[in-house]
Fold this protein.
Amino acid sequence: MLNLLSVQRVSLPPAGPLTVPLAAEQQSAEVTDWAARLGWVAGLLLFIALVYWLMRQGWKWRGSLQSDLPELPTAPDDPGTAKLTMTGRYHGSTTAGQWLDRIVAHGLGARSRAELTLTDAGLDVVRPGANDFFIPAARLREARLDKGIAGKVLAEGGLLIVTWEHGGRLIDSGFRSDRSAEHTAWVEAVNFMNQFITANQTGTAHQSATTPRTSTTEGPAR
């Protein structure tokens, strides 16, 4: 009975020698290599600065290529009664039909808030903090809905694109109203204005071509 009830004792080492190394290992902190970390941060900042500098140089180079573009027209003193008004954003201008060929001359490349007013005289674009410009009615070509311009992509029909002529070049300018439901009315109004002006110009030219010229024959001088 004593042999069956006997319990074998296992001797354990003292707690002190094991707990001390474990505690010391838990309390040890990883040493930070500040020199390497600062080097990485400085390298990243230099890379960002280089990219920004290259972008500015590309912007200036593109502007120099477009230096032949004349100064933008300004609004007349009395443009007439407003047909439509709109507040929203100006998203840039490009060569007509080429939504990535950005035009940066005369501040047209800067995105900004915009206030648009359409009158019989043309389209007045007021941009707080950027250059304002005016598109005479005779230079308006068309308006349409699109989704992208100058690298900016929105939902289908999210942009109002106005095509106009300036300095012998067709330009697409993109706007987005604070109330996108207004875009359709602007497309209809601009296109109607263009058709009306074109019809009047064609009618005048046709009338001039068909009007007979009167000629006088002078007799010999006496």
Observations:
- Residues 54 and 149 are 22 Å apart (CA to CA).
